Prior knowledge:
By secondary structure, the chain is mainly beta. It contains three helices and eleven strands; from the N terminus they run E-E-E-E-H-E-E-E-E-E-E-H-H-E.
Amino acid sequence: MPKPVTLTKAELVEMDNQLHDPLPRATPVRVQFNPESLKVTYSNQLVTGEGGQSAQTGTEALQYVGKGTTKLAVQLWFDVNHPTNHPPEGEAAKDVRDLTSKVAYFITPKDVGGDPKKYTIPGVQFRWGTFVFTGVLESLDESLELFSPDGYPLRASLSLGLTQQKIIAFEKGEVPPTTTPGGKAAGTSPLTSAPEGASVQSLAEGAGGRGGSKNWQDIAAANGIENPRLLAPGQLIDVNAKKRPVF
């Protein structure tokens, strides 16, 4: 029986000091909402050559110095009302900073061998589907967007700046092929992108027209949605999916 379409979530994983492999003990930090875009910047260090001017152009000759730098800028959102903050066991976080602290870990310096004068920053790998970027977290801006009546911050946006001290072609991760609930290859059935604040019920009503013929319970079950009342902005839903019969 083919599995329902699931939304691939971006995640952060701690790497070793050489940025070669994930640490064996590392638990991926999975985002709640996938970013809307990723910005990649390449830069080189250029200096004037010793020869002064180029013999052909008469302009100063430039030389490439070092391995260059590659940077990734990405914005992530966290919200205490997200379904992932309601674990089957344990207490849900009331302060969104309890969730964002897992990301802030990657920018927190650590003592090297217990020496208070030497520090290191954890290596981190950002991966989302086939997109992979490995480096260190150079900057982190956190904005608290929403507060509860008793003063708890409920929502936060994080602006991350990752850097790697060289220019390389990006690695491409492997994403296993998926199928839709109807058994078709992924990408062959049209999917609906959920707007902010949408629910499975509202999408089903819109897809069913005035007659409201779409069954939102079947749509939620066929798409593997645990909380039909709260969809992540941009989440892809097959509103034409039907619950598969149980034999």
